[in-house]
Write a structure and sequence with these properties.
alpha+beta
C-alpha cells in the first residue's frame, strides 16, 4: 500500500448459492485476484455459514460479512483489506410480500475501511428484488445509507434491472456505473443485459470497469457454468 494512493480490485458476483461449476468459480476468482469480493446469492439454507467459510478458504479470503442471517449477501477480502476494517454490518430492507419471489430476504452488507494515509471508503453488496416496487423501496434505503456515510461508497450488486430501470434512475445522482452499458452480465451463457454492476460515488478514481466472461484458466464456455450471472470487475484508486 502507498500513502499516495491505495489501489483496490473489487469483484461483484452473484454466486448462485454455489450451485454451479465450483472448480470454475474458484479458479476464476483466483485468476481475477480481487482485494474485495462482493457476493450476492451466498448459501442461505443448508449450512450457510459452513459453506461460505469453505468457499472463502478455497479462494484464500476472509469473510468480513456473511453467513447465517446474511440475507444471501457476503463480503470477502484479503488479509490486507481485512486489517483496514473500521465497522461492518448488515442492514435489512423491508419488502412488500406479493408473491413467492418477494419472500426472499433483502438487505445491504457493508464494511467501512480505513484508507492508508487518511480517510475512509465504504464497500457494500446488495441484491435488489424482482418486483419494481420492492426495488424502489430498496433504492430509497440505499440512497439514505449513502448520504449518511460521509465517505466514498462502492456498491456491488445484482440489481435485477438495467440502467434505464426506475430504481437505477433513482440512484443515478448518487451512484454511477463506470462500465459501459454493453458490458452485459445476464444470462451467463449468452449475456444480453447488464443487470449486475459495481456502482460508485464521487471521490473515487476508476481505472477500469468491465464484465468478465473468461479468465486465464477458465475459458468462456466453462466460465458461464460457474453461475447464472457473470461478474463485474472494478479497479479503483483511493
Amino acid at each position: 500500500m502507498s500513502r499516495a494512493s491505495w489501489d483496490l480490485r473489487i469483484l461483484s458476483w452473484n454466486l448462485w448459492e454455489l450451485r454451479g461449476d465450483l472448480a470454475a468459480l474458484i479458479e476464476a476468482v483466483e485468476d481475477l485476484a480481487p482485494d474485495v469480493l462482493l457476493v450476492q446469492e451466498a448459501p442461505r439454507f443448508v449450512l450457510p455459514t459452513a459453506r461460505l467459510r469453505w468457499f472463502a478458504r478455497q479462494v484464500d479470503r476472509r469473510i468480513l460479512v456473511g453467513g447465517r442471517g446474511g440475507r444471501g449477501l457476503a463480503i470477502l477480502a484479503t488479509d490486507e483489506v481485512a486489517a483496514q476494517v473500521i465497522r461492518r454490518g448488515m442492514h435489512p430492507v423491508a419488502q412488500t410480500v406479493s408473491d413467492l419471489n418477494s419472500t426472499y430476504p433483502r438487505g445491504v452488507a457493508a464494511v467501512r475501511l480505513s484508507v492508508p494515509g487518511g480517510g475512509a471508503v465504504v464497500v457494500s453488496s446488495t441484491h435488489l428484488a424482482l418486483q419494481e416496487d420492492n426495488r424502489m423501496r430498496h433504492a430509497e434505503h440505499l440512497a439514505a445509507l449513502v448520504r449518511s456515510t460521509g465517505a466514498p461508497v462502492v456498491l456491488g450488486g445484482d440489481l435485477n434491472e438495467t440502467a434505464d430501470g426506475a430504481a437505477r434512475g433513482f440512484l443515478a445522482p448518487l451512484l454511477a456505473d463506470p462500465a459501459a452499458p454493453t458490458e452485459h452480465t445476464f444470462p451467463a451463457a449468452v449475456p444480453t443485459r447488464r443487470i449486475d454492476a459495481v456502482l460508485v460515488t464521487d471521490g473515487l478514481r476508476v481505472r477500469s470497469a468491465r464484465a468478465v466472461r473468461s479468465t486465464r484458466r477458465v475459458e468462456e464456455a466453462r466460465f458461464a457454468g460457474a453461475s447464472d450471472h457473470q461478474p463485474t470487475l472494478l479497479d479503483i484508486s483511493l
